[in-house]
Design brief:
The structure holds 2 protein chains of 2 kinds.
Chain A: E1 7-20, E2 30-43, E3 47-51, H1 58-65, E4 73-78, E5 81-82, H2 88-95, E6 98-101, H3 115-126, H4 131-144, H5 161-173, E7 179-183, H6 191-208, E8 211-216, H7 219-225, E9 228-233, E10 236-242, H8 243-248, H9 253-261, H10 267-272, H11 303-307, E11 313-316, E12 319-321
Parallel strand pairs in A: 3-8, 3-9, 6-7, 7-8
Antiparallel strand pairs in A: 1-2, 1-4, 4-5, 9-10, 10-12, 11-12
Chain B: E1 5-16, E2 19-31, E3 36-40, H1 47-54, E4 63-66, E5 69-72, E6 75-76, H2 82-88, E7 93-96, H3 100-103, H4 110-122, H5 126-139, H6 145-148, H7 158-170, E8 176-180, H8 188-205, E9 208-213, H9 216-222, E10 225-230, E11 233-239, H10 240-245, H11 250-258, H12 298-302, E12 308-309, E13 316-317, H13 327-334
Parallel strand pairs in B: 3-9, 3-10, 7-8, 8-9
Antiparallel strand pairs in B: 1-2, 1-4, 1-5, 5-6, 10-11, 11-13, 12-13
The chains are: A alpha/beta, B alpha/beta.
Chain lengths: 326, 338
């Protein structure tokens, strides 16, 4: 991955706060800081992995990029245009270039529409194609994702989870997007089916030159598919680096712990490694700790970490980290 | 040495409107005292149903359990009457489930729920049971355990609920702990905590553990033996070494190939298994894996393979062609198939 590659998307100081209902007799409005000052860029043709545990804000980042949530502050520059500043009409024109694949293939397909109608929906909204053209495009898409084109008139319930996910992928590709955000597309699938879908995504990327943001909590799968990875914790980016760099030289203690918690399907390696077991649970995003977000669980935490929030800085070319000790 | 548990030809079926679902199709194996067994397979392979069948927790009807024997610590569990089997559940064989929130009762405190089992099975009085519950919460590493006894389940995080469930399961010092995907709903760092905890407790208390999972990565670390299940059959069984390094069944090879490894080189392709598992209502006549197998032959379509010894003692595989198969050949055969 060469740094000269064109940048497709830039996320700058993105914040998304959700208000929480006021407590009785309290005048103070409280906020969940779901995404708190996140910056990274995505290069054309790459796969950027976004990993983190429950409540780290990875899905909120994905949705805020697409302006499904409007950001509290910060910029999302897509091909140089700040999406956050666009009005609905202009935004709709941009949206056809960015699509999303959802986590739950059962909830994300309307059970009352045929597969043909589901995949054609983006064509209805964004193009002036005739019925016949749409039908041909749908069949072409079904073939592209490895489904029988004769399935157009079937309903989602007739398909398995993996096949439904393929339908979701076909829908996302209908408009020839530049960027596809995959929000945990495989976490609800069985292991053998996960590999089918990941292989399909990789092949489509090669064939169509797609750029992916791949959101997941499964570190080994994210590392498999990504060229660079962003590790998030409690609304902030802890570390960003190339897939090899982050594996060979993880600088943030959270990244190290996360890496060491990944199950290894090899009894000898699994038994010989040194595990870093983090204490306790992830704090509530409603009430994040003072100083560094990670200080309640960090094995290295010192006094400084409880006072100052570490700066997110580039420690070596293309390797960013937010830790006082990196 | 006499095994702790001997299962012979266990079959579980469900009679439904659409036909008979053959969930478990004649499985047999032994488990020894203090053994850690991993039961691996994907959804619908019968791994959970087989465990529930051992404890006779399958509703009958629509279920039906049949076996030569399910021998556990000196008697056949299938021959016990209702009150006898209740004595086994919880006291001798305890189970921890995937979703700790739905296994805990939301309207009672955690302390009460742990004490209840102790009063019921151990005949302790309220005060003794509460003291023991406190010890157990400490044992599973819940901080400020005394305060936590009076908390309700919703005040616990997911990881702590699972710890509480484990505490409850251990309350009567069972001989066998069945853990049915206990970490699937948890984050990886919390999953690591729970795995560490179960490994430590197993070593300290010397109980046998059956860990049911779809993730071959999890059991690699702790299990002594592994049963790989597919469509209600055990299709390969052996020591962890056999299963991971001398893999014989094409399905097991496929499962291992489907997992990315954290230290893999860039550009490594995953081996995916094409297609879907068979419908358990109309199982194929021959090998259940036939339709998805890269090595299938005519014989596999007609005759169902039975477990036979493959290479080393205790390593068995149900495949007609196991001698011709290895990971390299599978990679070649599957290639870049989607």
């Amino acid at each position: 991955m060469s740094p000269e590659q064109k940048t497709l998307l830039q996320v700058k100081n993105l914040k998304k706060y959700f208000p929480v209902s006021r407590q009785f007799l309290s005048s103070q409005r409280r906020y969940v800081k779901a995404v708190d000052d996140v910056s990274f860029d995505v290069r054309e043709g790459e796969t950027l992995g976004l990993v983190g545990e429950t409540g780290c804000g990875k899905t909120t980042v994905a949705r805020t990029i697409l302006q499904l949530y409007r950001p509290t502050s910060g910029q999302v520059l897509f091909d140089g245009v700040d999406l956050a500043s666009l009005q609905e009409n202009d935004l709709r024109k941009m949206r056809r270039r960015m699509q999303m694949i959802f986590q739950d293939p059962y909830a994300s397909l309307n059970p009352r529409l045929t597969v043909g109608a589901i995949i054609a929906a983006p064509l209805d909204v964004h193009t002036t194609m005739t019925q016949k053209e749409k039908r041909e495009r749908v069949q072409e898409l079904l073939e592209l994702v490895g489904l029988n084109p004769d399935f157009v008139n079937r309903y989602p319930h007739e398909f398995s989870g993996g096949q439904r996910q393929r339908i979701g992928i076909a829908r996302a590709l209908a408009l020839n997007p530049d960027l596809v955000i995959c929000d945990e597309p495989i976490s609800s699938l069985d292991v053998s089916i996960q590999a089918q879908v990941v292989n399909l995504l990789e092949e489509l990327q090669n064939r169509l030159g797609l750029t992916y943001i791949f959101v997941a909590h499964d570190l080994s799968m994210v590392r498999h598919i990504s060229s660079r990875m962003v590790v998030m914790y409690l609304g902030k980016v802890m570390e960003l680096a190339d897939r090899n760099e982050i594996y060979l030289r993880p600088l943030h203690p959270y990244t190290r712990a996360l890496m060491s918690a990944v199950p290894i399907p090899d009894p000898d390696k699994a038994r010989n490694r040194k595990r870093i077991i983090l204490k306790g649970d992830i704090p509530s995003p409603l009430n994040p700790p003072q100083g560094c977000n990670f200080n309640t669980r960090c094995p290295m935490a010192a006094e400084k970490c409880f006072q100052d929030d570490p700066e997110y800085r580039e420690i070596s070319p293309d390797h960013w980290v937010a830790c006082h000790f990196a | 040495m006499e095994p702790l548990m001997r299962i012979s030809d266990l079959k579980t079926r469900f009679h439904t409107q659409d036909g008979i679902v053959h969930a478990v199709n004649g499985i047999s194996y032994d488990m020894h005292v203090g053994e850690v067994l991993g039961v691996v397979g994907e959804s619908g392979c019968g791994k959970s149903v087989h465990a529930l069948s051992i404890l006779r927790l399958i509703p009958i009807p629509p279920g039906e359990i049949e076996a030569q024997e399910v021998w556990f610590a000196g008697r056949d569990l299938l021959k016990l009457n209702d009150s006898e089997i209740r004595q086994v559940r919880g006291r001798e064989i305890a189970m921890v489930f995937q979703d700790p929130m739905s296994s805990l009762n939301p309207v009672y405190t955690v302390g009460f729920q742990i004490s209840e089992a102790l009063m019921l099975h151990k005949g302790m009085n309220k005060k003794q049971a509460r003291e023991r519950a406190l010890e157990l919460l400490n044992l599973v590493g819940i901080p400020e355990a005394r305060k936590r006894l009076d908390n309700y389940p919703h005040q616990f995080s997911g990881g702590m609920r699972q710890r509480a469930m484990i505490a409850m399961a251990l309350s009567c010092e069972p001989k066998l702990l069945i853990a049915d995907e206990p970490t699937t709903a948890l984050d990886v760092t919390i999953q690591a905590q729970i795995i560490e905890l179960v490994i430590r407790l197993q070593e300290e208390l010397g109980m046998a553990v059956m860990w049911i999972t779809h993730d071959l990565g999890i059991v690699a670390e702790m299990a002594k033996n592994i049963n790989v299940m597919y469509a209600g059959f055990i299709i390969e069984r052996g020591s962890v070494h056999d299963i991971y390094h001398q893999t014989r069944h094409p399905y097991t090879l496929g499962l291992l190939g489907s997992l990315p490894s954290i230290d893999e080189a860039p550009g490594t392709k995953l081996i995916s298994i094409p297609g879907l598992p068979p419908d358990l209502i109309g199982l194929p006549q021959g090998c259940p894996f036939f339709a998805r197998c890269a090595f299938r032959a005519e014989r596999c379509r007609l005759e169902r393979p039975v477990l036979e010894e493959a290479g080393s003692p205790g390593h068995t595989v149900a495949c007609w062609r196991w001698q011709e198969i290895d990971a390299e050949k599978l990679r070649k055969a599957v290639g870049g198939a989607l």
